[in-house]
Structure formats: structure tokens, C-alpha cells
């Protein structure tokens, strides 16, 4: 019985690993193509704030990176956080990453300071999703995981603060983090209304 009970989680873990590895592999492939094109993709598909021709960057910018170090710094967090988010199910993973992706991109387009690329906003979104969902769901296992994640990665939250003289987009980080919190709220588990059990069969 326990083996059968663990099977769905094992399948989700396998699917999650394949998904996040595939996503990161796609980012590395795009990076190599962009390098071969002399940074053409970054220049044309990055987020150009408040410009109509830069709005498509909301969709494409997280797939693009400005250098090997930039992409490498996002690779491990994406693998770890993406895998953990996928364990709750593919639909929730897609929703969480999608909301974080869009929130980071739209916020950067509205308030950013220059051409922006990179998946760090998505990383921040997945992180805040994972550390807040347990409180919305009142799930002690998710809260415990949140504590572990905060201890391991909590220092990244300094990245949501405005920085002067830096080419790091704190706007992408801030709005990505807000997107993750919003995703946790929108995806919180529904609970039965109080007294519902009494209305359906107690004493029958």
C-alpha cells in the first residue's frame, strides 16, 4: 500500500526533474544561439522599458542572459526551486512560474531602467511562492520546507531593494517576488465551509 501511495509523488518527481532540466537546457541553448548571433537576441528580445517594441521582452527576456556567469547564477536555483514547485503538480507549477514570469516582466517594463534580460525574476517568484504557500494552505510540511529554503536562499531577498550604480534589475526581482506571493494566494487550497460535515450526514 505504501508503495502505491508513493507512486504518484515519484511520477511527479520524475516529470518535474525532466521539466526543469529541459527548461534550463533550453536557456543554455538560447544562450549559445545568441552568442553565435552576436547578442542579436538580447538586443531585440530583451525588455525595453516603456517602449512598445520592447514589450515582447516580457515573454522572451527570462530565456535570455547576458553572459555565462549570469546564466550560471540562475541555473541551480531554477533547478532546485522549480523541481520543488513541480512536486505539488504540473498545473500548479505552470501557474506559479507563469504568474511570476509575467509579473516580473510587466513590472520591469513599467518601472525598469534599461534593457533587461534574465530569469532571476522567475527565480525570485518561485522562491517567494515556496516560502509563502504553506501559510496560505496551513500545511506544516510546506512551512517546514519554507524555513529550510529561507535558511538556504533567504539572503537573495536583498535583491529586491533598489541599487545605485548596478546593472542588476531589482525591479525584475521585486515584481517576480510579488508574483510568487500572488501565485501562492491564488493557488491556495480550498477548505470546506465550517459546519459542512454537520449538514451532510452527522447522525444519519
Structure, described:
The structure is a single chain. The chain has 204 residues and is mainly α. Helices cover 68% and strands 0% of the residues. Helix 1 runs antiparallel to helix 4 (68-86). The longest helix has 35 residues, at 2-36. The protein is globular. The two termini are 31 Å apart. The model is unreliable at 1-5 and 197-204 (pLDDT under 50).
Could you tell me the radius of gyration in angstroms? 19 Å
CA-CA gap between termini = 31 Å
**Average pLDDT figure:** 90
Sheet of most strands? none
User: What's the tally of helices?
Assistant: 9
Instruction: Note the run of SSEs as H and E.
Output: HHHHHHHHH
* Helical content class: 55-70%
What is the beta-strand fraction? under 5%
Shape: globular
State the low-pLDDT regions, or none.
Answer: 1-5, 197-204
Structural class: mainly alpha
Strand element count: 0
Amino acid at each position: 500500500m505504501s508503495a502505491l501511495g508513493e507512486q504518484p509523488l515519484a511520477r511527479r518527481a520524475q516529470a518535474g526533474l525532466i521539466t526543469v532540466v529541459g527548461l534550463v537546457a533550453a536557456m543554455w541553448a538560447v544562450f549559445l544561439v545568441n552568442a553565435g548571433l552576436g547578442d542579436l537576441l538580447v538586443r531585440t528580445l530583451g525588455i525595453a522599458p516603456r517602449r512598445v517594441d520592447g514589450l515582447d521582452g516580457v515573454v522572451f527576456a527570462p530565456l535570455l542572459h547576458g553572459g555565462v556567469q549570469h546564466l550560471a547564477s540562475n541555473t541551480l536555483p531554477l533547478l532546485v526551486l522549480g523541481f520543488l514547485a513541480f512536486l505539488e503538480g504540473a498545473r500548479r507549477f505552470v501557474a506559479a512560474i507563469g504568474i511570476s514570469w509575467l509579473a516580473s516582466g510587466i513590472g520591469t517594463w513599467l518601472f525598469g531602467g534599461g534593457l533587461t534580460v534574465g530569469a532571476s525574476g522567475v527565480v525570485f517568484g518561485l522562491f517567494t511562492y515556496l516560502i509563502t504557500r504553506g501559510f496560505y494552505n496551513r500545511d506544516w510540511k510546506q512551512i517546514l520546507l519554507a524555513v529550510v529554503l529561507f535558511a538556504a536562499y533567504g539572503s537573495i531577498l536583498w535583491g529586491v531593494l533598489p541599487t545605485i550604480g548596478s546593472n542588476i534589475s531589482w525591479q525584475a526581482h521585486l515584481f517576480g517576488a510579488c508574483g510568487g506571493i500572488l501565485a501562492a494566494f491564488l493557488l491556495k487550497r480550498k477548505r470546506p465551509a465550517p459546519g459542512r460535515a454537520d449538514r451532510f450526514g452527522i447522525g444519519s
